[in-house]
Structures are given as structure tokens and as C-alpha cells.
DNA sequence: CGAGGGGTTGACAAAAGTCAATTATGGTGG
DNA sequence: CCACCATAATTGACTTTTGTCAACCCCTCG
């Protein structure tokens, strides 16, 4: 989906200097800016702010000022229905944007909370917009990022609308695996940052179903599960489970 | 969601002149542009092209050049999985945009097909983007429209993830009702443009479940169903069903 | 007027949810 | 460092919801 990083070593150093977090640039910001443009972007992005596990970035209903880029950590966004039931709308990691949904109403429409300690960049949206007018690549990049979010959501709709519990969970694990790998972590062994209930909420399943399905996967030798530690022992098998469906 | 139309009669005439379809402007384009800006926007938007029922606007995989604004008619967008299962991602009417998902990959990610004869405006995206740089309100408006799409998708995720068949269908009918009303049609009596199967695909249900649920609603006096003609006879009752996804 | 697509309905099967009991786990304070 | 508590996770028995398969109707269109 994203342009791979193709930066010569020499210029890499420059970029590191201009923006202290490289993966942020790779994932959130366009490549191919001039040095001057990069400097302007960096001035816009406030330095990463540390966030504690359990801390809310924003809550539904709050006034919208900024979008947020995850620099480090693991976040979830969710909408809460009146009776308190939660629908998790996404899990967000390193280099992903949050808060795009709030642009339309100037109020946040969901909650964003850190599932582990992390670091966040805040991008004041008004400033972003006017800067985007002067830097076409930046403008285009935000359109792309929003479009990506729409595509992602369509993928989730497909999952929720068409897939059985096993397929959903297999797809979920593979998706996490891929995203961890993109960030240089192991694709076959990772730690879930969320509870079974949160997984269930995201996938439209009850926590018991999530638990049972993971157990079954383990019996079948597809994964090894130790609480939140996941080992994908048969990725091909998992892929086969979802192969009937489109993945993002 | 959308800013209501607050235009004095005098200027209304001007606008009608500048853009032959008023509801298009109301829904798709920002208000408050100068006459000159409006003229530029209108030059960008090609005149509405007639579209026949069954005709495809674009298909998944095709190269992306333009976004589309529905001027008249009723469209569905859907992704098809490899094994041929369809997930309808949305129904689109008068004044709504389609194709925003394609920006991220420069290829369309879903199919868009007309469910009845209609008329479509094509907006070449490159031109749109550069014009947006010169007209801040236009740039902002597209960000808003994309954000709206994300919010809408989150709503569907909530529906698919948390609601029972009855709740989904009630929510679906009320949503259609509202959108028809916004466009000046009856909110209590309307014609479904899609089959039970397409409704089911959108709502994550089988067509039999859709049919049965509508029959049950009719027995309960909530609606009157004559094939595709729907009469909402107890909107409050429907609304109660949806909000009683509060069941605890 | 007959074929075919869309729609309804019934009987049954499968999937996931609910309730409840039990077992880990991790964080905290003594 | 350990014991304890609250929270998270697992598992089983049973219920509810939805899907599946099949028969049938109805309407339209060629």
C-alpha cells in the first residue's frame, strides 16, 4: 500500500535530523519533499508527547483541533453506544493517523485510548491544511491517508458482513502480523495489546467466541497462544482460512 | 451533518445559473464561494452524464482518474471477494460522492453500479486537487466529505458488529427515510431500489432473513411492505427498536 | 403464455451468544 | 518477596439467532 522507503544513506541522515522519528515520516508523511518543505512540516508537528497506558487522547464529543500520529505504542479507537456497549473501530500503531473522522463535524466521534505506554504527535489541523495548500505533496498525502482509512473500513465491513468467526480471527491475526512486520518486528511472534473482549468488539464477536476460536486454532496447530503472546505456527493455514475473502 | 442551505433568494438565482444542479452544490460543494470561484468549480465539473440502470461507473481494479457525484439516481458500491461473494459497502443517492476509496491506491477498490437510471458528474481528481489549493474552502470541503465517509463507515461497523437483524433493518429503513427526506421526498413512503439480497449484503444478513424481518415488521404494524414499496407506519416504533440495541 | 428473477415461507441445521463455574495472571501493598 | 485481589481468560452446557435448503408464489417481460 505504502511506498517503500527508498532513501539513500546520505540523505537518510538529513531526514533523521529534520524529523526525529523516521518511521513517522515513512508512514504518515509524503516522501520527496525539499529540505525547506520538510522543515516547515517538522515545525508543524509538535514534538512527540509521552502517553501512558489507559490515557485518552480524545473522547467522543470533544472539540476537534488536531489529528494525531502514533509515534510509538498501541492505541484503540471506539464508539460507545448509549447503553455502554463498545464498538472498537480500529487498533492503531506506530505511524498511523487517528482523528480523521472528526474533520467532518469538528467534534471527535470516537474515543482514542492508549493500550500501552507510547508517544504521540499532535498535528493542528488548521495549520496542516494551510501548509498543505503550499505543499501539494502534503495535501495529496492527507487525501491518500483518508482514502486508506476508507478502504480499511470497507475491509472491516467485508469481514463483519461475510466472514465466520474463524475467518475473522484468522484475518485479524494475519493483519496484525503484517503490520508488525512492516515496522520491523517479528511477523510470527507478537504480543496482543488488547483483551479478548476488545478483539471481540472489533470483530463483532463475544469474548468467549474469540477465546474458543483461539483454542481451536491452537489444537489445529495454526498458532500457539500463551495468554496474549501469539505465535503463528502455520501462516499458510491461516491464510487458507481467509483466502475466500479479500484482504487489505 | 451538512450545513443547511441558507441562501437569499436573490443569490440563489445566481447560483442556479452557475451550477445547473443546485442539490449537487448543496451536498457536494462548499457554500460561500465567490462568483469567480464558483465559476472555476463549475468548469471543473463536467456536465452531468446520463447513466442507465445496470451500468457500471467503475469497477474494482480500474485506474482512478475521477471521483463521481451523484446528480440523480441510486447507486450501490460493493467489493466482490474471490469466491464471488459480494459485500455492498454503500448505497448512494443524489448529492453523494463515490470513488473516494480509490485515491489511496490510484485504482478503484470497489464496483459502482446504477440501480436505476440517473445522471452523474465526473470530477477529475488531479484538477480538483490543484483547484482546491487555490480555493481553501474547496480543499476543506473534500477533507470533510472524506471524513464523513469514515464516520458513516464506523456507523456501519457498529451496526454489523453489535446489532441484531431486527435492529439492523430498522436502522437501515430509518436511514433511508432520513436521506429521502433531506432531498425533499417523502420520509414515510419510498421505493427500495435494491433487491433483498443487496440489502442483506449491506447489512450482513441473508436475503431470507431480510424478507422474514420485513414480514414480521409488517405484522407488528411497524411498516407496510408491498414488494419494494415501503411505508413507515410507526417510525417511533422503529426508532425504539434501534435505540433498544440498548438491551441490558 | 411460459420462463425467470425476485420474493416469501417453512423445517431444520449450524453458528454464535449466554450463563456459569473455574483457572490463570499481573499488579499492589504489606 | 510474597500473598492477595481484581481482572482476564478458558471451558462446558444450553439457548437463541441466523443460515441453509427447498418449495412455492407472483409479477414482468419477451
TrEMBL record, chains A, B:
SMART domains, per the entry: cNMP, HTH_CRP
Domain HTH crp-type: 163-236
Domain of life per record: Bacteria
Pfam family, one: cNMP_binding
Keywords: DNA-binding, Transcription, Transcription regulation
Molecular-function GO terms, alphabetical: DNA binding; DNA-binding transcription factor activity
Cyclic nucleotide-binding domain span: 29-149
Matches recorded under InterPro entries: cNMP-bd_dom (IPR000595), cNMP-bd_dom_sf (IPR018490), Env_Response_Regulators (IPR050397), HTH_CRP (IPR012318), RmlC-like_jellyroll (IPR014710), WH-like_DNA-bd_sf (IPR036388), WH_DNA-bd_sf (IPR036390)
Cellular component GO terms, alphabetical: cytosol
PANTHER family linked: CRP FAMILY TRANSCRIPTIONAL REGULATORY PROTEIN, FUMARATE AND NITRATE REDUCTION REGULATORY PROTEIN
Protein name as it appears in the record: Transcriptional activator protein Anr
Organism annotation: Amantichitinum ursilacus
Amino acid at each position: 500500500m505504502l511506498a517503500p522507503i527508498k532513501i539513500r544513506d546520505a540523505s537518510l541522515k538529513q531526514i533523521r535530523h529534520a524529523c526525529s522519528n523516521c518511521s513517522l515520516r515513512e508512514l504518515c508523511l509524503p516522501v520527496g519533499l525539499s529540505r525547506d518543505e520538510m522543515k516547515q512540516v517538522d515545525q508543524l508537528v509538535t514534538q512527540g508527547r509521552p502517553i501512558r497506558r489507559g490515557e485518552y487522547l480524545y473522547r467522543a464529543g470533544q472539540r476537534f483541533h488536531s489529528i494525531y500520529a502514533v509515534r510509538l505504542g498501541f492505541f484503540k479507537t471506539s464508539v460507545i453506544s448509549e447503553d455502554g456497549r463498545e464498538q472498537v473501530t480500529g487498533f492503531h500503531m506506530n505511524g498511523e493517523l487517528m482523528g480523521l473522522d472528526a474533520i467532518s463535524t469538528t467534534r471527535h466521534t470516537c474515543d482514542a485510548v492508549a493500550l500501552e505506554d507510547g508517544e504521540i504527535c499532535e498535528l493542528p489541523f488548521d495549520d496542516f491544511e494551510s501548509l498543505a495548500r503550499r505543499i501539494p505533496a502534503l495535501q495529496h498525502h492527507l487525501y491518500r491517508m483518508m482514502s486508506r482509512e476508507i478502504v480499511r473500513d470497507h475491509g472491516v465491513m467485508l469481514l463483519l458482513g461475510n466472514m465466520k468467526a474463524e475467518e475473522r480471527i484468522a484475518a485479524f491475526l494475519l493483519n496484525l502480523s503484517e503490520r508488525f512486520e512492516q515496522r520491523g518486528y517479528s511477523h510470527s511472534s507478537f504480543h496482543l495489546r488488547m483483551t479478548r473482549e476488545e478483539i471481540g468488539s472489533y470483530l463483532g464477536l463475544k469474548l468467549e467466541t474469540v477465546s474458543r476460536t483461539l483454542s481451536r486454532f491452537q489444537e489445529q496447530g495454526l498458532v500457539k497462544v500463551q495468554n496474549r503472546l501469539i505465535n503463528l505456527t502455520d501462516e499458510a493455514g491461516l491464510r487458507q482460512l481467509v483466502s475466500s475473502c479479500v484482504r487489505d
